[in-house]
C-alpha cells in the first residue's frame, strides 16, 4: 500500500522537507536542495528553524509557508519518496495502541513539521531508475517541480519543464486526488503523554524480554538529521571520492625508476615511492581532479559523509557552490549548455501561491532569504487534461486563511494592484540575487579554467545550427531560436544540415567585402559573425523566463508583458555587472562585458577527470566485467583531437558511488576496501610491509587506456552488427508471413571508423600506435607486412575477388581483429613482466592489455565463422589458447597438436577465464571440422586420405582432442564439461578416456563418470556418460498460424476441478507446465518423490538458481567473501560486488624443471587456492548442521547486517538487505530442504570456479513442507502460506494459479559479473525486471521447523526442464551430477514420441 503522489506532496508540504541520513543529499524546504547550489545553512537560518520547531503556536504558519515545494525532483524520485514515507508511517500505524484517537489536524501538522527528515535518495524501491533521472534532464527526460497548493492535504501541482520546440515549455499539472492523511513520522522528542512515546516505551520494554517474537527498529532507530551543504552533495562526493582514491592510493602509483626491479612490489625501504598515473608533468590537466579532491571527506571517503561542517567562510562556500554546478553539468548530456537551462534547473526561486497574511514587503530587497522563501512557477498555462474545475478551491482547516488555487485566475486586463506591483518588484529582486549567484559561479569556473564558451565564430555557427539527422531537431537551439538567428544573419531558406553555418559562409560582412585581402582569406576568416546574435536570442530567452516567473500572470499567458520583460532584461545585465565586480575584487580574471549565454566543460580538465573516473569504474567492475555496455568503465573518452562523429555516451554511465549514496544499489563488501596511503606504508605501526601496484610503469597504464578505447569501439560495432542481423531476421520472417507489422530494434546508425582501419595508411598509423604502446621493439615493419597479407587473403578466398564481407562495419571488426592478432603474436614470445604478472595476480587481467586484445579476438571469431573464414578463426584460436606465433594463416591439425604437446607459456591460460577457454577449445575443434569438410568437398584426394586414416585408427582431429584432454585435465585450465564435450568425439566411454588421467575438478566436486561403474568398465565402444534422473511427460503444444522460429513454444496446461477431473486451462510455457505437473503429483510417475503417502504439493520458482546464489552470498559473505588483508589488491574500490579472485577458477600451472622433459605443477593463486583451509573448515561445519541450525545461520547472518546499520534510513536504503529480509523465511526453508551436505557441495563448486558455476543451475526450485508422521497423526502437507508467509501468502498468490507471484528471477545475484557475461555482444531483454518490494523496517521472525505443535520436514528439488527438441548443456549435466538426488530433469515429449 502506497500513498498517492499528491498525498505525499501534501504530507511533506506540512513539515518542510526530507533529509538523508547519510548527510549527502536531502530535501529541506526546497525538496531537492541538491538541485539548488544556492542552498546554504546559515547560522541565522538554523536558529530560526530551531525556534520554529520549539514554538507550538507557529506550527500552522510554518506549515503554510512551506506548502509549495520549491525544488525540482523527477516523477520516479517522487514515487520512491512516496513509497518510503508511506511504508514507514504504516509501521507506526501497526505499532500504535488501539485505545487512543488519532491526533487532530493541528497535532499532525506540528508532528510532521518537527519530524526527522528522509532523503530524496530513497530509491531502493525502484532499482530500474536511471540515476540521471533523479532531477537531471538528459535528452527526453523532464525536469519536474512539485509543489503543494497549500499546507492542506487535498491538492498539489506538478510543473514540468520540457525541451519541446516551442515557447510554452512549462506545463502546470494539478492533481486533485483526495488525501486521507492518517499517520506521519513522530518527532524525535515526543512528550511522555503522547501515544507515540507510549508505544516507543512499550516496544523498548518488549525488546529487553528474552522471548521476543520480532526485532523492531522502527521506534528505537530514528532518521538522523544531518546538515546539508553543497559540499555534501552526492554528485560532488562520489567524484571527489573516485579522484582521491585514484590519486592517493599507493596501489595506483607507478615506479619512478625506469630500470626499477621491484616487479610491481616495492618494499617500504626500497626507495621507490612511485608517482601518480595522472600528473601535470605528463601533460594532464588536473584542474578539475584537484578541485574535487579538495572537497572529498577525508574521514571516510569510502562512504557517504556523515558529518559535514557548515561553518565555512564565504569564499569556501562560493567555491563549493561553483563545483556543485560543475558536477551537475558533468552528469548531463551536453556538451553545450545555455544559461536559461542552468538557471531554471538550479538557481531560479519559486513564488509562493498561498495568499497569506504575511506582509510580503518585509522580505529583504537583496534576496538573502531566497533559499528559505518558497516561490512557485505559476507562469504557464495549465494542462486541461489533468485539472478538475470543480475542485478549484481549497477547504479550510483549523480556521486557516482560505487558499485559492489561481490556476483559473482570469487574465488580467493590464491593471496591476499595488500589492501585485510590490510583489513583482520583490520577486525580481530575488531573481537578481539568484542570477548574481549563477553568474558568480560561472565566472569563477571560467577563471579556474574548468568551463569555456565559443572559441570562434565557426564553432558557434556549427553548434547553433546543428540538427539531428532524420528528426531535424536542434541539438542546441530550438526551431524558433534558429529561425531568429537566421533572420538576424539576413537569410534563410536552405534545408541543409546546418542552415546557420551555411548562411555564415554564404554571405560576407560589409567590412570583409571591401577588404583588399578578402579574396585571400579563408571561409573561416570571412564568414559572418553569429555569436552576438546567439547571445542576443538566448539573453532574451532568459529574460522572458525570468519575467514569466516574476509576474503573477505566467499561468495564463505564454509571453510576458513588455514592461516585465524590460525589467527582467535590466536585472540580468545588472546581476552580470555586479557579479563581475565581485569576482574582480576577489582576484578572478576580468570577464567580458557581454553575458556568456553558452557554456561547456573545458576539454582538457574534463578529459583528465573522465580518465580518472574510467579507471575507477573499471576497478569497480573487476575481471568479471570486461565488456562495455555504455554504462560501465569500458567507454570511450573524447579528446580534443577526437572525431565529433563518435557519440559521447558519458551521460549514460552508472556511477556506483552515486548509486550507493542515492540508495539505488547497495554494496555489502564496502568495508573490505582499505585505502593505502604513502604515510600508512611508512608508518611504524602499519602492518602492511608490501606495496601492491596495479601498473608497474606509466606506459602500462597508457597501454591499458588504449585497450579500453579498442574495447569500446569493438563493443559499439558488435552491438550495431547484432542489431542489424536481428532486424534482418525479423524482416525476413515478416515477409514470409506476409505481415505488415515489423518489430525492429533501434539502431544507433553507422559506426564511425575511429581507428581508420579501412585504409592502408590508417592501418599503418594505428599499428604504429599499438606497437609503440606495447613495447614490441623494432617489429613494426614485420607486423605491418603480416597484417596486409592477412587483409589480402580475404580477397583471395573469394572467387569474385571480393572480401565476402557484407558492409564496412564487418570490415572494421575484421581489420581491428587482424591487427590485434598480429600485435599479440609478437608480444607473447617476449614474455614481458606484465604478462608474467598474470600468473601471480590473475585477478588483475582486466588491467592487462594482452587480456583485452584476447577478448577482442574472442568476440570477433563468431563473425569470421558466419562468413566461412575458418582458417583465420583457427589462427586466432591457436594464438589465444596456445600462444601460437605462426606467420601463415592456414595452420594444419598436426601443427596444433604439436603445440598442445609442447610446453605452453604459463601466462597463456590466464588470458581468458576457464569457461571461455573451454568454449574456445570447442570452437577450435568445430572450425577444424568445418574446414576439413570444405576441403573434402573440393578435393577428392583429401577425401580418400580421410577414409584411410579413419580405417587405421583415430583421425587427426580425434588425436588432437585426446592431446587436449591429456594436457588440460592435469592443469584443470578448462571446466570438466568442456572435457566431456571433447571426449564425445573419441567415441569411447568417458570412464575409459579418463581412466589414467587426473583431474582435480572431478575429484574435489565428486563428479561421477557413469551411473553403473561396472557397466562403464565393461563397455569398450561408443560414448557413454553419467545420466541424470529424468521424468517424462506428454506436452500438448499449441499450434500457431505464424512461424515460431526463435520463439518459445506454448503448451496446454491442466487444472483440477472438484479434485478428480482435469480440464484444460490457459496456455503455459514449458516451465509453468512442469510446475503444475509436480504440484498436482503427476510427476514423477514412478513416485520417487512420494514420502509417507504424500505425493505432489511442490511449489516454487522459475529462478534458474538465483535463490541458491543468494544463500551462497548470505552465508559466505563474512567467512569467505569478505576476507582481505590491508595490503591486498583484490579490493581496489569500495564498490565491488565480489573480491577479484572470485573469478579466478582453481587451476595449476606447469613449470619446467631443470631436468629435460620434466615439469612440475604449481597451483594458481585463485579464490579456492588462497582460501583453501578456510573454505574447507567452513564447508565442514556447514555439512554437519541440522536443518534448524541452517535456518538459524541464515537468520543470524541477515540480522547481523541489519544491526550494522546506524539508523532506519540506511536500512531502507540497503536494497540487497531489503530483498534478503523480504525472503528470509523462504530462503531458510529452501536451505533446510537441501541440507548441510548438499549445500556444502554446491558452495564448494562455486568456490572452485564461481565464474563457471554461478550459471547452469536447474530452471526450477521446488519446495514442499510436510508434517512428520506420528502415531496420532499421519503425514500431511503444511500450508506454506500459514507457516512461511511472504510470497506464499494468499494475498500474494493470484486467484486461480498457485504459482502466480512466486516466479521472481533475481538476475542481480551474480557476484561481480552479469548473467550473460561470457556471451558476445549486447544481450537485449536478457533479464527480467525485479519486482519492487515494500520497505521493511522490522526483522521477521526466525523460521522454526515446527508448526502447529508438529515437526516439519522440507523437501527441496531442483528441476531442469527440457522440451522435445532441447537437450542438456554440458554444464547443466555437471550441476545435476553434483546435486545428486536433489536434482532431476523433466522432459516433455509429444504423444507420438512417447509411444515410441
UniProtKB/TrEMBL annotation:
GO biological process, one term: DNA repair
GO cellular component, as recorded: nucleus
Biased composition range(s): Low complexity: 56-67
Key words, A-Z: DNA damage, DNA repair, Hydrolase, Magnesium, Manganese, Metal-binding, Nuclease, Nucleus
Chain intervals with Acidic residues compositional bias: 359-377
Primary localization: nucleus
Top-rank taxon, per record: Eukaryota
Catalyzed chemical reaction(s): Hydrolytically removes 5'-nucleotides successively from the 3'-hydroxy termini of 3'-hydroxy-terminated oligonucleotides
Enzyme Commission number: 3.1.4.1
Membrane spanning stretches: none
Subcellular location: Nucleus
Co-factor(s): Mg(2+); Mn(2+)
Top EC group: hydrolase
Biased composition (Basic residues): 36-50
Region (Disordered) residue spans: 13-67, 184-216, 354-394, 722-743
Ranges of biased composition (kind: Basic and acidic residues): 23-32, 198-211, 722-741
GO MF terms held by the record: metal ion binding; phosphodiesterase I activity
Function: Nuclease required for the repair of DNA interstrand cross-links (ICL). Acts as a 5'-3' exonuclease that anchors at a cut end of DNA and cleaves DNA successively at every third nucleotide, allowing to excise an ICL from one strand through flanking incisions.
Family stated for the protein in its record: Belongs to the FAN1 family.
PANTHER family in the record: FANCONI-ASSOCIATED NUCLEASE 1
Protein name as annotated: Fanconi-associated nuclease
Species of the source: Cyclotella atomus
Amino acid at each position: 500500500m502506497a500513498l498517492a503522489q499528491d498525498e505525499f506532496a501534501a504530507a511533506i508540504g506540512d513539515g518542510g522537507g526530507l533529509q538523508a541520513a547519510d548527510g549527502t543529499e536531502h530535501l529541506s524546504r526546497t525538496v531537492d536542495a541538491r538541485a539548488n547550489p544556492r542552498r546554504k545553512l546559515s547560522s541565522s537560518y538554523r536558529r530560526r528553524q530551531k525556534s520554529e520547531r520549539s514554538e507550538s503556536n507557529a506550527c500552522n504558519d510554518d506549515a503554510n509557508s512551506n506548502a509549495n515545494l520549491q525544488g525540482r525532483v523527477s516523477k520516479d524520485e517522487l514515487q520512491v519518496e512516496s513509497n518510503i514515507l508511506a511504508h514507514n508511517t504504516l509501521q507506526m500505524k501497526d505499532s500504535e495502541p488501539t485505545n487512543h484517537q488519532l491526533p487532530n489536524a493541528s497535532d499532525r501538522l506540528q508532528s510532521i513539521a518537527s519530524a526527522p527528515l528522509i532523503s530524496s535518495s530513497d530509491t531502493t524501491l525502484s532499482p530500474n531508475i536511471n540515476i540521471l533521472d533523479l532531477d537531471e534532464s538528459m535528452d527526453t527526460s523532464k525536469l519536474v517541480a512539485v509543489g503543494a497548493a497549500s499546507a492542506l492535504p487535498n491538492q498539489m501541482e506538478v510543473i514540468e519543464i520540457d525541451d519541446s520546440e516551442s515557447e510554452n515549455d512549462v506545463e502546470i499539472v494539478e492533481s486533485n486526488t483526495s488525501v486521507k492523511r492518517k499517520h506521519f513520522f513522530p518527532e524525535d522528542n515526543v512528550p511522555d503523554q503522547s501515544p507515540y512515546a507510549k508505544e516507543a516505551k512499550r516496544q523498548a520494554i518488549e525488546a529487553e524480554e528474552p522471548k521476543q517474537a520480532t526485532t523492531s527498529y522502527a521506534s528505537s532507530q530514528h532518521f538522523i538529521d544531518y546538515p546539508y551543504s553543497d559540499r555534501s552533495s552526492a554528485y560532488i562526493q562520489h567524484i571527489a571520492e573516485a579522484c582521491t582514491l585514484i590519486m592517493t592510493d599507493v596501489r595506483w602509483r607507478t615506479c619512478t625508476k625506469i630500470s626499477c626491479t621491484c616487479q610491481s612490489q616495492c618494499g617500504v625501504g626500497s626507495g621507490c615511492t612511485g608517482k601518480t598515473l595522472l600528473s601535470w608533468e605528463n601533460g594532464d590537466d588536473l584542474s578539475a581532479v584537484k578541485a574535487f579532491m579538495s572537497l572529498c571527506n577525508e574521514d571516510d571517503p569510502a562512504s557517504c559523509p556523515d558529518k559535514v561542517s557548515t561553518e565555512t567562510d564565504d569564499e569556501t562556500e562560493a567555491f563549493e557552490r561553483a563545483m556543485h554546478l560543475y558536477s551537475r553539468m558533468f552528469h548531463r548530456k551536453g556538451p553545450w549548455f545555455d544559461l536559461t537551462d542552468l538557471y531554471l534547473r538550479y538557481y531560479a526561486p519559486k513564488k509562493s501561491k498561498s495568499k497569506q497574511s504575511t506582509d510580503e514587503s518585509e522580505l529583504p530587497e537583496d534576496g538573502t532569504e531566497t533559499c528559505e522563501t518558497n516561490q512557485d512557477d505559476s507562469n504557464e498555462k495549465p494542462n486541461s487534461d489533468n485539472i478538475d474545475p470543480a475542485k478549484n478551491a481549497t477547504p479550510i482547516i483549523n480556521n486557516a486563511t482560505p487558499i485559492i488555487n489561481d490556476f483559473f485566475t482570469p487574465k488580467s486586463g493590464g491593471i496591476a494592484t499595488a500589492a501585485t506591483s510590490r510583489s513583482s518588484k520583490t520577486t525580481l529582486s530575488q531573481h537578481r540575487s539568484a542570477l548574481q549567484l549563477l553568474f558568480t559561479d560561472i565566472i569563477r569556473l571560467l577563471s579556474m579554467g574548468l568551463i569555456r564558451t565559443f572559441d570562434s565564430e565557426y564553432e558557434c555557427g556549427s553548434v547553433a545550427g546543428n540538427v539531428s539527422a532524420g528528426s531535424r531537431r536542434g541539438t542546441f537551439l530550438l526551431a524558433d531560436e534558429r529561425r531568429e538567428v537566421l533572420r538576424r544573419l539576413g537569410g534563410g531558406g536552405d534545408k541543409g544540415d546546418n542552415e546557420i553555418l551555411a548562411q555564415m559562409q554564404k554571405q560576407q560582412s560589409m567590412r570583409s567585402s571591401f577588404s583588399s585581402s578578402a579574396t585571400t582569406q579563408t571561409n573561416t576568416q570571412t564568414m559572418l559573425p553569429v555569436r552576438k546574435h546567439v547571445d542576443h536570442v538566448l539573453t532574451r530567452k532568459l529574460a522572458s523566463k525570468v519575467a514569466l516567473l516574476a509576474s503573477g500572470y505566467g499561468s495564463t499567458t505564454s509571453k510576458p508583458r513588455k514592461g516585465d520583460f524590460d525589467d527582467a532584461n535590466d536585472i540580468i545585465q545588472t546581476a552580470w555587472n555586479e557579479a563581475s565586480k565581485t569576482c574582480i575584487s576577489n582576484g578572478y580574471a576580468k570577464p567580458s562585458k557581454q553575458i556568456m549565454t553558452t557554456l561547456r566543460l573545458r576539454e582538457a580538465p574534463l578529459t583528465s577527470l573522465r580518465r580518472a573516473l574510467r579507471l575507477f569504474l573499471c576497478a569497480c567492475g573487476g575481471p568479471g566485467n570486461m565488456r562495455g555496455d555504455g554504462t560501465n568503465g569500458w567507454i570511450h573518452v573524447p579528446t580534443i583531437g577526437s572525431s565529433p562523429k563518435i557519440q559521447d555516451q558519458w551521460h549514460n554511465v552508472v556511477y556506483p558511488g552515486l548509486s550507493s549514496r542515492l540508495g539505488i544499489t547497495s554494496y555489502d563488501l564496502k568495508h573490505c576496501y582499505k585505502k593505502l596511503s604513502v604515510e600508512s606504508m611508512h608508518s611504524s605501526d602499519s602492518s602492511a610491509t608490501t606495496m601492491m601496484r596495479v601498473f608497474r610503469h606509466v606506459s602500462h597504464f597508457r597501454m591499458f587506456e588504449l585497450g579500453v578505447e579498442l574495447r569500446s569501439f569493438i563493443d559499439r560495432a558488435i552491438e550495431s552488427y547484432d542489431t542489424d542481423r536481428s532486424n534482418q531476421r525479423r524482416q525476413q520472417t515478416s515477409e514470409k508471413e506476409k505481415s505488415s507489422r515489423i518489430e525492429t530494434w533501434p539502431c544507433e546508425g553507422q559506426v564511425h571508423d575511429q581507428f581508420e582501419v579501412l585504409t592502408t595508411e590508417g592501418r599503418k598509423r594505428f599499428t604504429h600506435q599499438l606497437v609503440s604502446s606495447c613495447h614490441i621493439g623494432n617489429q613494426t615493419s614485420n607486423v605491418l607486412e603480416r597484417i596486409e597479407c592477412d587483409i589480402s587473403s580475404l580477397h583471395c578466398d573469394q572467387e569474385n575477388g571480393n572480401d565476402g564481407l557484407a558492409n564496412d562495419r564487418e570490415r572494421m571488426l575484421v581489420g581491428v581483429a587482424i591487427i590485434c592478432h598480429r600485435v599479440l603474436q609478437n608480444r607473447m614470445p617476449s614474455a614481458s613482466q606484465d604478462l608474467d604478472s598474470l600468473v601471480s595476480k590473475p585477478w588483475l587481467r582486466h588491467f592487462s592489455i594482452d587480456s583485452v586484445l584476447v577478448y577482442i579476438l574472442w568476440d570477433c571469431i563468431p563473425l569470421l565463422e558466419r562468413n566461412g573464414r575458418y582458417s583465420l578463426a583457427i589462427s586466432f584460436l591457436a594464438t589465444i589458447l596456445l600462444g601460437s606465433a605462426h606467420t601463415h594463416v592456414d595452420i594444419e591439425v598436426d601443427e596444433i597438436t604439436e603445440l598442445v604437446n609442447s610446453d605452453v607459456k604459463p601466462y597463456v591460460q590466464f588470458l581468458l577465464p576457464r569457461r571461455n577457454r573451454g568454449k574456445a577449445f570447442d570452437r577450435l575443434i568445430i572450425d577444424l571440422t568445418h574446414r576439413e569438410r570444405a576441403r573434402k568437398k573440393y578435393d577428392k584426394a583429401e577425401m580418400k586420405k580421410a577414409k584411410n586414416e579413419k580405417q587405421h585408427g583415430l583421425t587427426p582431429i580425434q588425436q588432437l582432442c585426446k592431446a587436449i584432454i591429456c594436457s588440460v585435465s592435469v592443469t584443470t585450465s578448462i571446466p570438466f564439461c568442456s572435457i566431456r564435450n571433447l571426449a564425445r568425439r573419441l567415441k569411447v566411454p568417458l570412464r575409459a578416456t579418463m581412466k589414467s588421467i587426473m583431474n582435480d575438478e572431478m575429484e574435489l566436486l565428486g563428479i561421477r563418470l557413469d551411473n553403473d561403474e561396472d557397466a562403464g568398465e565393461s563397455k569398450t565402444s561408443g560414448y557413454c556418460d553419467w545420466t541424470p534422473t529424468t521424468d517424462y511427460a506428454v506436452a500438448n503444444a499449441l499450434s500457431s498460424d505464424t512461424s515460431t522460429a526463435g520463439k518459445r513454444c506454448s503448451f496446454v496446461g491442466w487444472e483440477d476441478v472438484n479434485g478428480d477431473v482435469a480440464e484444460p486451462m490457459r496456455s503455459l510455457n514449458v516451465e509453468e507446465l512442469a510446475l503444475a505437473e509436480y504440484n498436482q503429483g503427476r510427476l514423477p510417475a514412478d513416485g520417487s518423490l512420494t514420502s509417507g503417502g504424500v505425493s505432489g504439493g511442490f511449489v516454487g520458482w522459475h529462478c534458474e538458481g538465483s535463490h541458491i546464489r543468494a544463500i551462497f552470498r548470505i552465508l559466505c559473505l563474512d567467512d569467505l567473501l569478505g576476507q582481505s588483508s590491508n595490503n591486498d589488491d583484490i579490493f581496489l574500490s569500495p564498490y565491488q560486488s565480489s573480491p577479484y579472485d572470485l573469478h579466478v577458477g582453481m587451476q595449476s600451472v606447469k613449470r619446467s624443471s631443470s631436468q629435460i622433459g620434466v615439469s612440475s605443477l604449481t597451483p594458481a593463486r585463485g579464490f579456492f587456492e588462497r582460501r583453501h583451509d578456510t573454505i574447507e573448515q567452513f564447508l565442514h561445519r556447514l555439512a554437519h548442521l541440522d536443518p534448524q541450525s541452517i535456518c538459524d545461520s541464515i537468520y543470524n547472518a541477515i540480522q547481523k547486517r541489519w544491526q550494522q546499520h546506524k539508523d532506519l534510513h540506511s536500512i531502507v536504503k540497503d536494497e540487497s538487505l531489503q530483498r534478503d529480509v523480504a525472503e528470509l523465511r523462504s530462503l531458510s526453508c529452501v536451505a533446510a530442504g537441501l541440507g548441510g551436505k548438499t549445500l556444502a557441495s554446491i558452495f564448494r563448486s562455486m568456490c572452485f570456479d564461481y565464474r563457471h558455476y554461478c550459471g547452469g543451475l536447474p530452471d526450477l526450485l521446488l519446495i514442499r513442507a510436510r508434517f512428520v508422521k506420528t502415531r496420532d497423526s499421519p503425514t500431511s502437507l503444511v500450508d506454506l502460506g500459514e507457516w512461511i508467509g511472504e510470497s506464499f501468502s494468499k494475498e500474494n498468490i493470484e486467484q486461480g494459479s498457485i504459482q502466480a507471484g512466486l516466479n521472481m528471477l533475481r538476475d542481480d545475484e551474480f557476484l561481480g559479473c552479469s548473467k550473460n557475461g561470457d556471451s558476445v555482444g549486447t544481450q537485449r531483454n536478457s533479464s527480467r525486471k525485479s519486482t519492487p518490494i515494500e520497505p521493511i523496517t522490522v526483522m521477521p521472525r526466525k523460521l522454526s521447523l515446527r508448526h502447529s505443535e508438529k515437526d516439519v520436514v522440507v523437501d527441496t528439488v531442483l528441476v531442469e526442464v527440457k522440451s522435445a527438441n532441447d537437450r542438456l548443456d554440458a554444464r547443466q549435466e555437471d550441476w545435476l551430477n553434483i546435486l545428486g538426488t536433489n536434482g532431476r530433469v523433466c522432459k516433455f515429449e509429444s504423444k507420438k514420441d512417447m509411444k515410441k
